Amino acid sequence: MVDLVKWSLISLYFTGRLTGSINFEIDFRTARLKVTKRATVCAACLQILILGSLYYQLLHTDFITTIISGVETLTDYVFLVIECSRVIGIILALVSVWTHHRTFVRLYNSFRRLSQNNPEAVQYCRKSIVGKCLCIHVSEILQVVVIFYILRDQLTIPRCIRVGNIVALSVVINVVTAQYFIALATLRGRYFLLNRDLRTFLAETRALNPRKRGVFVTACCSLADRLERIAQSQSAVQGLVERLVRTFQVRIVFIIILSYLNLVGNLYILYSYYKNGILAKLWLSEEVVFVTSFTVYYFIESWTNVYNSFYLLDAHEEMVQLLGQRTLFKPELDQRLEAVIDSFVLNLARNPLRIRFLGFYTNSRPASIALFETYLSHLILLIQYDIEHS
After folding, report:
1. Which one-letter DSSP state was computed for residue 125?
2. CA within 20 to 30 Å of 242's CA: 24, 164, 331, 349, which one?
3. Is the pTM value of this prediction over 0.70?
């Protein structure tokens, strides 16, 4: 049977290598990471090629002049802001590949040990991993097909270079997003295993019979040891979550901003097409299909990324609720078992799991609802401005 998770990760790895956003090698037999001169030089050359090509396109051609001179309407300004934000985000993502290199290597080794010690964890998130990688590759192929279709009668070498730049920039963003997404999904799978073990522990603890004194004491000691291992594993997983967020927080914040601009901008552009009658006359035109397809894609991607974090937070909250069932235990429990339970509950209460970026944005359902309301309010402001000044 084909291991879809393995091949999805391999395809993502080579995609990252081809764009220079991954600057190390992986031994697929042992999953060990190797920092080699070949991988370092290859990634550096590819990044120099991408950034150099982008620099030439922006400063040594009439590209900037053409764009600035063509900015006449609010729609043109929206296009310009989206593209400028994309370029800034990509440059920061490529720079962070080198500034966080050692941190990323240590983080990868921690995840490798986690996956090797708990191979079942991947089974709980295999659909998410395969779906994410498939979505990324489909979007890249769709982007190339749409762009070349629109430029089918105007293809020249400079235009092909520009298309290559656009695709490379999108791939860099997608690789960073996928790395963070897969890491969170793996941690969520580990939480599912811990909750399964915790439910088994609770069932066995409730079934203890204090009347069988010798067996009761032995069972309590065994259960205390198991709960200590669960608590240690949970602490290690939560520590991995915090390290992961610290490593990716700058890149993720810019990706959130970029997704925000893409969603608001594309929806406004669709409104402009509707206002100007383009949707009614040419609803299957290349431009309308292009903008609509990527608006749907950005919405689906944002939704999956946000809910991937929610599922992890829900798994942690489920653990807290399971431990809340301690009130159903018999009052004659062993003192050591009681102490371990109290310590675990107290540790979860003192160290709640939070996914917080740069100290000001917390990934939670209320924050996401507020962000969605901001999407709508800014979209409405753009439409109102357009109506007033059209």
Report:
1. S
2. 24
3. yes
